[in-house]
Amino acid sequence: MRSRGMSPRIAEDLAKKIISGELPEESSFRLQDVEAWYSVSVTVAREVMHTLQNKGLVQARPRRGITVLGREYWDLLDADVLQWHESHLGPIIADLEESRLLIEPWAARTAASVGSLESVGRLREAMQELATAADSGDVSAMTRADLNFHRILFEASGNSILSRIARVIEPALKRRDELTMHEKKREDLNFLPLHEAVIAAIEMRDPAAAHSAAVRLITESGTDSAQALAH
């Protein structure tokens, strides 16, 4: 196996073995093992180890080799870690939806109360972008537009910490959208009026209605996620 450019693919392969339990928690291996398993140089093996360590999957210590860490140490909001989950995504997505239910209705309520005309206008533009993407049937465009809508909703609250949280959870939201914004959404566009209800309430400066609309949107999102993960 040629070593050039192999580091990301080897990291992915080992990560999937860790996530699936093939390489269980507290098991260990050495750089020399990585070299032998994949016929690569020690330089590539080190790159792989650093990648996995930076994402919380392993810990490398002198004279103790590389130890597989438990799930509580994994960076579950890292885009690669989420993508490497071929299964076992259920608990992560469920936690995501639960977290959104705690913060996103508050963001909608606050945007309706204090959101600037500029931020509310940007949210309306994001809604139009989502509708246009849905009309085109382009699933990738729908995913991008949905992420943009929710990012701007958090920003419209005016809370800088909440806006940062939105950026942190975005990889998980993107992974959720990849599971739910599938071909079926070309015919089933029920998510559009749910989004529209949120922005309409914000435009009317009705905090209670914005809060309720966001709750309905996220509740339906949770149902879509559960159904997608059940297949």
Strand-pairing-aware structural class: mainly alpha
Average pLDDT metric? 90
Radius of gyration, in Å, reads 21 Å
Poorly predicted sequence stretches spanning 5 or more consecutive residues: none
User: How much of the residues is beta strand, in percent?
Assistant: under 5%
**Number of extended strands:** 3
Strand order of the largest sheet: 1-3-2
Helix content: over 70%
Question: What is the string of SSEs from the N terminus onward?
Answer: HEHHEEHHHHHHH
Largest sheet: 3 strands, antiparallel
Question: Whole-Å distance between the termini?
Answer: 35 Å
> Which quaternary structure do these chains form?
single chain
Number of helix segments? 10
Q: How would the global form be characterised? A: elongated
What does this 3D model show about the protein?
- The protein has helices at residues 7-20, 31-38, 42-54, 79-84, 90-114, 117-136, 139-156, 160-180, 191-203, 207-230, and strands spanning 28-29, 58-61, 65-68.
- The two termini are 35 Å apart.
- It contains ten helices and three strands; from the N terminus they run αβααββααααααα.
- Helix 5 crosses helix 7 and helix 5 packs across helix 8.
- With 231 residues, it is mainly alpha-helical.
- A hairpin with a 3-residue loop joins strand 2 and strand 3 (65-68).
- It has a three-stranded antiparallel β-sheet.
Q: Which secondary structure elements does this structure contain, and how are they paired or packed?
A:
Elements: H1 7-20, E1 28-29, H2 31-38, H3 42-54, E2 58-61, E3 65-68, H4 79-84, H5 90-114, H6 117-136, H7 139-156, H8 160-180, H9 191-203, H10 207-230
Antiparallel strand pairs: 1-3, 2-3
